[in-house]
Specification:
333 residues; alpha/beta; Elongation Factor Tu (Ef-tu), domain 3; Ubiquitin-like (UB roll); 3 domains; 6-stranded antiparallel β-sheet; 5-stranded parallel β-sheet; 17% helix; disordered N terminus; flavoprotein; FNR_nucleotide-bd; iron; metal ion binding; metal-binding
């Protein structure tokens, strides 16, 4: 998983203690960490595509995909790429963790799920974006569901899990795209989509620019809601969009209590001022932790975790970044 760019401190009450069981140099600048529970605690089960908050030795929280086989219930696996210019997140995990070190992690969360109704699954990754897709591949292989992985890497030395993906049960399901120039990526993606059939669902993770090209290629052949993205870095704001930061009122349906969300503040912060706490993580509109149901009012969606169809329903809001476009919005709280 990509390291997020924020430096949010962890809420210890929302984490659990685990111990590092093994560390593997998976690829150039990528380490694979296996963690197990401490004492008699049991790790929660998770679905493919899930991620966890990890409190790094530097004290900051980063999000990483669980990339192991979801059927393995005694440990979690996550891979960390040491990012250039890291402010202490990925670099502290590389430098200060050893076998036997203790960590605090959050519970698994998932807004990047496999769709059971899909007739075929097309997984497309670039670089460290392979991590959430690997857990999906484990599940799909275990239930004999048809799938193929297209994996774009600069070189095989930089390809995490290259050996795993070249062995059973994945052999024959993986196409490596090695050293493809940026200008040639769109053509390679068009070729990957050329033979897909109706009923296919697409799952992609990687740099924002890469995923934009995946979406563009996919939407020429599939309904938009068949294409699913995992973002761990907010994409640049489209300044051509009409946006208003004007204040509005939030009403809590269960109590009738109201609070003003002023210009320059967020729904999360306004609710906190009246004692209503909304769980957050990324605070950038990419993780989905703070999504709340909406019973009335209009939404100006600014997140990157709800799908186009979910946004069109106007019945849920990402409280850390999105706002109301009406004078009042009623939350299902």
């Amino acid at each position: 998983m990509h390291e997020t760019v924020h430096g949010k401190m962890a809420n210890v009450e929302q984490t659990r203690l685990v111990v590092v069981d093994s560390i593997i140099n998976e690829a150039d600048q990528i380490r694979l960490f296996r963690v197990r529970s401490v004492g008699d605690d049991v790790l929660e089960k998770y679905e493919p595509g899930a991620h966890v908050d990890v409190v790094t030795p530097s004290g900051f929280t980063r999000q990483y995909s669980l990339c192991g086989d979801p059927a393995c219930e005694d440990s979690y696996l996550f891979a960390v790429k040491r990012e250039v210019g890291s402010r202490g997140g990925s670099s502290s995990l590389h430098e200060f963790l050893s076998v036997g070190s203790e960590l605090r992690i959050g519970r698994p969360r998932n807004i990047f799920r496999l769709h059971d109704a899909a007739e075929f699954h097309l997984l497309i990754a670039a670089g460290i974006g392979i991590t959430p897709l690997l857990s999906m591949a484990y599940r799909l292989a275990s239930v004999n569901s048809p799938f193929v992985i297209h994996y774009f890497v600069r070189s095989l030395d930089q390809a995490a899990f290259a050996k795993v993906l070249s062995s059973p049960p994945f052999w024959g399901h993986v196409v490596f795209h090695v050293g493809v120039s940026r200008d040639a990526v769109a053509k390679e993606l068009d070729d990957a989509f050329s033979s897909i059939a109706a009923g296919t669902h697409v799952y992609t993770c990687g740099p924002n620019g890469f995923m934009d090209k995946v979406v563009a290629a996919g939407e020429r052949r599939l309904p938009p809601d068949s294409i699913h993205l995992e973002r761990f870095q907010a994409s640049p704001t489209n300044t051509s969009e009409e946006r208003s930061d004007a204040g509005f009122t939030v009403k809590i349906a269960s109590s009738g209590q109201t609070v003003r969300v002023a210009e320059g503040t967020t729904i999360v912060r306004a609710l906190s001022e009246i004692g209503v706490e909304i769980e957050t993580s990324c605070e950038e509109g990419i993780c989905g932790t703070c999504i709340v149901g909406v019973l009335g009012g209009d939404i100006e969606h600014r997140d990157q975790c709800l799908s186009k169809t979910e946004k069109a329903r106007n019945d849920a809001i990402c409280c850390c970044v999105s706002r109301a476009s009406s004078a009042e919005i009623v939350l299902d709280l």
